[in-house]
């Protein structure tokens, strides 16, 4: 087409501890930017009451997940708290080829795998203002029993330590609106994305 550039999209990895506000920030970034879409991951974990299959996650069986691993159909995958999570490779590649930027809301382990494949990926890590506030946010969600919540909190410290090595951009979510604005600016500055 005349006047249409052959712009290739980019992968934007957004990670952070459970309960830090990643999902809200990602959804708002998609709402505020043009050619940005949120990748929908597959998972073997049970669907929560307020979640929608195909929108929040694709909820699949462990057998189906293993089949996708064998077929190399996942960009990245990880086991987190006894559940499997992964990013469908074909959907990300299609979007990038179409000139769209794709946000992957994944953990640090998955982020490292994505960066190995997409060398120009924009790496953003969302930090809690403090460990105490992260615990309060996690408790407020009411999604996990006490043992799992403690496991997640311990994992958060390890994830934050690893993030300092692999992520170019660190955003502290102590003010949600400010954190959203920072993430939107990072995406715009690294992709040429217009608002």
Give the gist of this structure.
45% of the residues lie in helices and 21% in strands. The protein is built from 7 helices and 9 strands; from the N terminus they run βαβββαββαβαβααβα. The chain has helices spanning 22-32, 62-70, 89-97, 108-117, 131-141, 146-166, 176-191, and strands spanning 11-15, 36-38, 42-43, 58-59, 74-80, 83-88, 101-105, 122-127, 169-172.
List the helices and strands and how they pair.
Elements: E1 11-15, H1 22-32, E2 36-38, E3 42-43, E4 58-59, H2 62-70, E5 74-80, E6 83-88, H3 89-97, E7 101-105, H4 108-117, E8 122-127, H5 131-141, H6 146-166, E9 169-172, H7 176-191
Parallel strand pairs: 1-7, 1-8, 2-7, 3-4, 8-9
Antiparallel strand pairs: 3-6, 5-6
Please characterize this protein's 3D structure.
This protein is an alpha/beta fold. It has a single domain, classed as Rossmann fold (3-Layer(aba) Sandwich), CATH 3.40.50.300. 45% of the residues lie in helices and 21% in strands. It contains 7 helices and 9 strands, in the order E-H-E-E-E-H-E-E-H-E-H-E-H-H-E-H. It has a 5-stranded parallel β-sheet, with helices on both faces. A hairpin with a 2-residue loop joins strand 5 and strand 6. Helix 1 crosses helix 7 and helix 4 packs parallel to helix 6. The protein starts with 10 loop residues before the first strand and ends with a helix. The model has no long low-confidence stretch (mean pLDDT 85).
């Amino acid at each position: 087409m005349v006047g249409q550039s052959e712009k290739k999209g980019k992968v934007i990895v957004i990670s952070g501890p459970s309960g830090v506000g990643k999902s809200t920030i990602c959804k708002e970034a998609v709402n505020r930017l043009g050619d940005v879409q949120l990748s929908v991951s597959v998972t073997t974990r049970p669907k929560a009451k307020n979640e929608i299959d195909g929108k929040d996650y694709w909820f699949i069986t462990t057998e189906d997940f293993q089949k996708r691993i064998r077929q190399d159909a996942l960009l990245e995958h990880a086991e987190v708290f006894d559940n499997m999570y992964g990013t469908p490779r074909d959907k990300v590649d299609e979007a990038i080829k179409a000139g769209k930027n794709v946000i992957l809301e994944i953990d640090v382990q998955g982020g490292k795998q994505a960066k190995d494949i997409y060398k120009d990926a924009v790496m953003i890590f969302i930090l809690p203002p403090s460990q105490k506030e992260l615990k309060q946010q996690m408790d407020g969600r009411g999604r996990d029993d006490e043992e799992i919540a403690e496991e997640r909190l311990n994992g958060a410290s390890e994830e934050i330590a690893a993030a300092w090595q692999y992520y170019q951009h660190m955003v502290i979510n102590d003010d949600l609106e400010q954190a959203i604005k920072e993430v939107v600016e990072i995406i715009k500055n690294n992709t040429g994305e217009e608002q």
